[in-house]
């Protein structure tokens, strides 16, 4: 049973793994029946190419040939360039890459949701996720290394999100495990509820989370806390960090950090992360490395 409870703890850790408009005169003067071709440059270095649809004080809306309609907050826009009406737009390597995995940091979640109707595969543990609605998603899966240890496990991860303000999101989610040891013929379960607030947007945000949980045959866990953030530094690269503080009944409370980078493609995100705390640095100065992958099907 100690072995089973230890596996649940490891499974949980790996599963959590300006308002002014910017206008171009050429856009304003173009007849409405003609679609204007434009290039939008953002303050964070992204480049969007497509056909102008509309613009107000909050958003510029364009239509691309690869990802459809895109709404860009005007406060993120650095400049807009109009292309000749007769010039064909080629969607080259500078075309914007959507952040397909704004839900996950290295371990825990933000208050953003998976795309409605989208299907995703994740490792750590091996999980299938689906965006059921704009505000609700659910994941189910298992762990291959738990099977190697002869402890079949099922994992369930529902999450509900709600927009509270222009750049404020709320979340409540659950990480639940149930398993059975083939060696001892005993079963056990664990459940951790998380709730928190995200401030920002998918490419630049900060999330504070409170966790409540329990493991079968173990007293209820003390509430513990995390503060996580991610920032897009180029069209394909993001930086992520996530710190945890875990109060205990002993004098020494537990704190640890996950940090690393994320590489983006059209259909996947690849994370290289490091698990870091004071004890680990005695052996590995930069922390224990790990890889997390999310693929959009």
From TrEMBL:
Keywords: Signal. The keyword Signal applies. It comes from the Bacteria. Residues 1-20 form the signal peptide. This is Outer membrane protein beta-barrel domain-containing protein. It comes from Marivirga sericea.
């Amino acid at each position: 049973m100690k072995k089973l409870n230890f596996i649940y703890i490891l499974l949980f850790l790996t599963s959590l793994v300006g308002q002014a408009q910017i206008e171009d005169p050429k856009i304003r003067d173009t007849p409405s029946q003609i679609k204007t071709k434009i290039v939008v440059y953002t303050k964070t270095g992204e480049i969007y190419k497509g056909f102008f649809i509309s613009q107000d004080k909050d958003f510029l809306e364009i239509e691309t040939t690869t990802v459809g309609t895109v709404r860009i907050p005007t406060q993120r826009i650095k400049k807009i360039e109009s292309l000749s009406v007769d010039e064909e737009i080629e969607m080259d390597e500078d075309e914007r890459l959507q952040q397909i995995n704004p839900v996950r940091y290295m371990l825990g979640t933000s208050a953003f949701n998976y795309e409605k109707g989208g299907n995703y595969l994740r490792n750590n543990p091996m999980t299938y996720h689906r965006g059921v609605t704009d505000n609700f998603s659910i994941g189910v899966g298992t762990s291959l290394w738990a099977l190697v240890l002869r402890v079949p496990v099922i994992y369930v991860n529902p999450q509900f999100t709600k927009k509270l303000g222009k750049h404020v999101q709320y979340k409540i989610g659950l990480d639940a495990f149930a398993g059975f040891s083939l060696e001892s013929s005993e079963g056990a379960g664990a459940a951790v509820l998380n709730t928190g607030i995200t401030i920002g947007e998918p490419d630049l945000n900060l999330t504070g989370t409170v966790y409540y949980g329990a493991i079968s045959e173990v007293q209820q866990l003390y509430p513990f806390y995390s503060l996580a953030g991610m920032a897009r530094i180029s069209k394909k690269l993001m930086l992520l960090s996530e710190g945890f503080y875990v109060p205990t009944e002993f004098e020494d409370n537990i704190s640890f950090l996950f940090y690393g980078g994320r590489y983006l493609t059209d259909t996947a995100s690849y994370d290289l992360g490091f698990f870091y705390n004071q004890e680990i640095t005695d052996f590995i100065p930069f922390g224990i490395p790990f890889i997390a992958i999310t693929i959009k099907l």
